[in-house]
Amino acid sequence: MPGGDGIAELPRRPIRKNGAVPYYAQLAQLFRDAIVSGEWEPGRPLPSEQVIGEFFGLSRTAVRQALAELAAEGLVRKEKGRGSFVRGPRRTEFVVQELRGFFDEMSDQGKVVSTDVLLLETTTAPPDEAALLGIPTGSKVVQLDRLRRVDGEPICFARTFLPLPRFAGLAGQDLSSCSLYEVLHSVFGVEPSTGWRTVEAAAADRSTARHLGVRQGSPLLLLTSLNVDATGEPFEHFSAWYRADRTSFRIEVGPARGAS
């Protein structure tokens, strides 16, 4: 199978000739999986239409339909006289420095944000969470699990812990179509002040992979954050798993203190 000279190696999975799904749609899905999973990195050339057709036993027309569908999705680019290349999925950029929420940042970029609230309940804080929030071990917290979508596509699975009794009324709030920070400010009087962020690589476990629509073990970016209010009291700790094939983080820097 093609794979030399930097050309993408074609998937080994066959096209089902007796199924209800059109051949071109099956081929497009095979290529889509290879791109989204990171198996094919951006810029890698694809084999020629003839080679793809011969490998899968498909007509040139079916191959062209599949590539056209991927090009329309922005996953493949076609260059006249050169062939087709992996373009890679469009990425959503997040600024690490600013203390604001997912909803506000994406809305400011003109994107449509939607949220599935998967869990909103009172639970016992895990020891690590209690320590970060500055509350005694065994204290009760509100746990909020959300799946965040941008323009209809799942981008982030977030798990947030907020201390009780301060946020006891949070369960009665509609968090599916608004900013959590706006609710914390308007309902609970929270004035965010400072915080920290860490970003690290992670692999999708079975549950997170299912939520984000990726394969188990797919690369993710794990953003962990602790936020503190104007009184110096921690009010939120969250972990958010972002699809690494769809997101990037921009870190803004300035001159060092005392620099002339």
CATH architecture of the largest domain: 3-Layer(aba) Sandwich
The beta-strand count equals 10
In the predicted model, the low-confidence regions spanning at least 5 consecutive residues are: none
Number of self-contained structural domains? 2
Which overall shape is indicated by the principal axes computed on the Cα atoms? elongated
Largest sheet: 6 strands, antiparallel
Order of neighbouring strands in the sheet with most strands:
4-5-6-9-8-7
| Portion in beta strands | 25-35%
The radius of gyration over CA amounts to 23 Å
Task: Annotate the secondary structure layout.
Blueprint: H1 23-36, H2 49-56, H3 60-72, E1 76-79, E2 83-86, E3 92-95, H4 102-108, E4 113-124, H5 127-133, E5 140-150, E6 153-163, H6 180-188, E7 192-203, H7 206-212, E8 219-229, E9 234-243, E10 247-250
Describe it.
- The strands form three sheets. Strands 4-5-6-9-8-7 form a six-stranded antiparallel β-sheet. A two-stranded antiparallel sheet has the order 1-2.
- The longest helix is centred in the first third of the chain and has 14 residues, at 23-36.
- It is 25% helix and 32% strand.
- It has helices at residues 23-36, 49-56, 60-72, 102-108, 127-133, 180-188, 206-212, and strands spanning 76-79, 83-86, 92-95, 113-124, 140-150, 153-163, 192-203, 219-229, 234-243, 247-250.
- By secondary structure, it is of the alpha+beta class.
- It is elongated, with a radius of gyration of 23 Å.
- It folds into two domains: 23-86, Orthogonal Bundle (Arc Repressor Mutant, subunit A); 92-250, 3-Layer(aba) Sandwich (Chorismate lyase).
